Amino acid sequence: MKYALLFISVLLAFPASADPLCEWPHWESFKAAYIENGRVIDRSDPRHITTSEGQSYAMFFALVANDRSSFDQVLAWTQRELAGGDLAAYLPAWLWGQRDLAVTSRGGKKYGVLDNNSAADSDLWIAYSLIEAGRLWHHYYYSSLGYLLLEQIRRYEVVEIPKLGLSLLPAPMGFVSDGEFRVNPSYAPLQILDRFATLYPQKNWDKVSASAYKLLLQSMPKGYSPDWVKIPAGSNAANWVLDVGSYDAIRNYLWVGMLADSHPQKPTLISAMKPMADAVEKNDGPPEEINTSTGVYSGTGPAGFSAALLPFLTQYDKKETLIQQRERAAGLLANATENERYYSSVLALFGVGWDQNYFQFSKDGALHTAWQTGCQS
């Protein structure tokens, strides 16, 4: 708890500030629809759940919006409710919500942690947002807390996978059995791993980034990324078991699309993923589900998929398709008050926010925001 006490003293010394010229309307709509007292609520689940994913993304968006007050509220709730009061000592639990849908005898509802396991992707985004907040807001506490959280990620969620390399597990527990590994390519955005590799080269994050790139590239034989990959003991990519490509995998195209144009691996990935861009063009929208082994797809994904693919589609000569998907995504955040669409709204904040130049990533993964340059984007 000593870090939590330090947090309070630091906040008193550094009052929150905001630049009204840099207001991000879609972020304000998202806050009104989904955030209460620092807690991001997904009401599509009857338990009104909060995930570490939602908390991590909210911290990132608050940083992009130069919204210190919201950043601190989300951080405080995350640390208090998901990490035993101290993110420096405990990885955050991934799931929190109503424990029993039955009303108690007092007429209240019981809320708390529903699953203590952490989620590595959320942990990465929290650590990244803290470290970049420390740099952009000149706030040492954020940087220190982010580094200490990253040390836990490195210790508990990074393992050596034979023939793949040093890799990120989805969580500390439940994804390794009898030498078989189950991994999720979308959990490891290259820009985040590259940022850690630049800042902390002695921790071998460059090797984690290299294996994440290898996993991403070798798990899409037909140009479509899977939600999950099973890696049998000691197997090569030819023997990997690929899941369908859908709600998780849509983020892979988002992360790749947002890589800096100077990123050395971006051209190869954009070339390999071209079948997805072609499918969006032919399907008049992103497919909802794809057999990643055969390339056969079906359905049309929600508007959040279109929003997520905006950075990706800008990489191809498909102007009409890009315009079409921008129009499809446009109404999503405008109707954020229909608050059972948490995930689509998150994808839209990423995709539309990048497309409208509220933020970009540098070659080494550093965050660049519009408010850093007076919002003249």
Structure overview:
The protein has about 375 residues and is an alpha+beta fold. The protein has a domain at about 1-155: Glycosyltransferase, CATH 1.50.10.10. It is about 45% helix and about 10% strand. The protein has helices spanning about 1-15, 25-35, 50-65, 70-80, 120-135, 140-155, 190-200, 205-220, 250-255, 265-270, 275-285, 305-310, 310-315, 320-335, 340-355, and strands at about 35, 40, 50, 95-100, 110-115, 160, 165-170, 175, 180-185, 230, 240, 290, 295-300, 360, 365-370. The strands form six sheets. It has a four-stranded antiparallel beta sheet with strand order 8-9-10-11, with no helix packed on it. Helix 3 (about 50-65) runs parallel beside helix 5, helix 7 (about 190-200) packs antiparallel against helix 8 (about 205-220) and helix 14 packs across helix 15. About 50% of the residues are buried.
How far the N terminus sits from the C terminus, by CA atoms, comes to: 41 Å
The CATH topology label of the domain at 1-156 is Glycosyltransferase
CATH architecture of the domain at 1-156: Alpha/alpha barrel
Question: Could you estimate the helical fraction of the residues in percent?
Answer: 40-55%
Uncertain residue segments: 1-21
| Radius of gyration over all CA atoms, rounded | 20 Å
- Overall pLDDT: 91
Total helices: the number is: 15
Sheet-strand content, in percent, reads 5-15%
Name of the CATH first level of the domain at 1-156: Mainly Alpha
Element pattern in H and E: HHEEEHHEEHHEEEEHHEEHHHEEHHHHEE
Give the biggest beta sheet: 4 strands, antiparallel
Reading side by side through the largest sheet, how are the strands ordered? 8-9-10-11
Oligomer: single chain
Q: Give the number of DSSP strands.
A: 15
What would the principal axes of the Cα set say about the shape? globular
* Structure classification: alpha+beta
